[in-house]
């Protein structure tokens, strides 16, 4: 475990909160916001957003319906398996292995939501899990809006000629974007058989653009630049942000996609309890060509869809 005093920066988003259509670009508060995000993404690679006006009641509802879903019998959950085409549906325990070097799959289950998947057959029924579909659908909009604000702030931080460049490549209709909402459940230690070197969520960096992460309790560890892992501190009302590998590539390594993980440490009081988290994975539109923003050829241009397909192929 690394130095736990290396805390993740907490950034006040009041200058670009969800109720503002656009910020006052010349205000000191907005400039400070841009500078803080830029600093975080060029150093530790993670930051917490606070004061963004994110609706707390929507988050509360997400925790509840997610728990209801994951507590259903396996035979019901398994009726709605992840559909690889849309990346929508249920993924059972040990199915996903985020660190291919670990011998066993991750000790977690999850449900991915992709909004184009309106078909009822791909969702638990209202009798099986009341409000599951409507609550997940309702959580999508504030996540989408907040992630677009972060993308714009990043464009300013990098002093792009067009600060909206990233936003403009995250706008296509849902059929043409891999942006996904994921709700995760890590069962209590007593409810699982832990195999050697098994993790709740193996070491990995995210694949796409930027991720928003909501955590119900601690457990996430983030790799430091020294190479060890530190606990991400919990922040009341904080939404954790990090970037994915495709964004690191796009920024020609100016912004860093940092590895993270969740372990099952049987000696820690926290990790023997069940844990929930929710991730919103923002992904560039499928037809976006990701070319280094500095004009360099540090990375060859890559099509967003080809890239995500390649990464999923290695995970499942
Ligand atoms: C992922 O699903 O990619 C995560 O990193 C989840 C992290 C967490 O549960 O805190």
TrEMBL record:
It comes from the Eukaryota. PROSITE patterns: FE2OG_OXY. Keywords: Iron, Metal-binding, Oxidoreductase. GO terms for molecular function: metal ion binding; oxidoreductase activity. The keyword Oxidoreductase applies. Pfam families: 2OG-FeII_Oxy, DIOX_N. Residues 177-284 form the Fe2OG dioxygenase domain. InterPro entries: DIOX_N (IPR026992), IPNS-like_FE2OG_OXY (IPR044861), IPNS-like_sf (IPR027443), Iron_ascorbate_oxido_reductase (IPR050231), Oxoglu/Fe-dep_dioxygenase_dom (IPR005123). Belongs to the iron/ascorbate-dependent oxidoreductase family. This is Fe2OG dioxygenase domain-containing protein. It comes from Patiria miniata.
């Amino acid at each position: 475990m690394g130095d736990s005093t290396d805390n993740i920066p907490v950034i006040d988003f009041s200058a670009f909160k969800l109720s503002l259509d656009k910020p006052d670009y010349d205000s000191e508060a907005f400039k400070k916001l841009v500078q803080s995000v830029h600093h975080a993404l060029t150093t530790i690679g993670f930051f917490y957003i606070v004061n963004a006006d994110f609706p707390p009641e929507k988050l509360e509802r997400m925790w509840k319906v997610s728990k209801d879903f994951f507590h259903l019998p396996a035979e019901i959950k398994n009726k709605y398996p992840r559909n690889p085409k849309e990346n929508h549906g249920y993924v059972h325990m040990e199915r996903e292995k985020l660190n291919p070097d670990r011998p066993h799959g991750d000790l977690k289950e999850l449900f991915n939501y992709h909004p184009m998947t309106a078909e009822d057959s791909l969702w638990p029924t209202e009798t099986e899990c009341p409000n599951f579909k409507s609550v997940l659908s309702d959580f999508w909009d504030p996540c989408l809006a907040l992630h677009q604000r972060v993308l714009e702030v990043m464009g300013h931080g990098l002093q792009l000629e067009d600060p909206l460049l990233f936003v403009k490549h995250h706008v296509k209709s849902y059929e043409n974007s891999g942006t996904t909402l994921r709700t995760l459940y890590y069962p209590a230690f007593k409810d699982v058989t832990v195999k050697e070197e098994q993790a709740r969520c193996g070491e990995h960096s995210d694949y796409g653009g930027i991720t928003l992460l909501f955590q119900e309790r601690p457990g996430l560890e983030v790799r430091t630049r020294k190479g060890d892992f530190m606990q991400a501190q919990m922040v009341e009302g904080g939404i954790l942000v990090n970037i994915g590998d495709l964004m690191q590539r796009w920024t020609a390594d100016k912004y860093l996609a940092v590895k993270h993980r969740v372990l099952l440490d049987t000696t820690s009081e926290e990790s023997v309890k069940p844990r929930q988290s929710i991730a919103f994975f923002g992904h560039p539109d499928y037809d976006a060509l990701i070319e280094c923003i500095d004009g360099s050829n540090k990375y060859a241009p890559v099509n967003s869809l080809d890239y995500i397909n390649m990464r999923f192929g290695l995970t499942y």
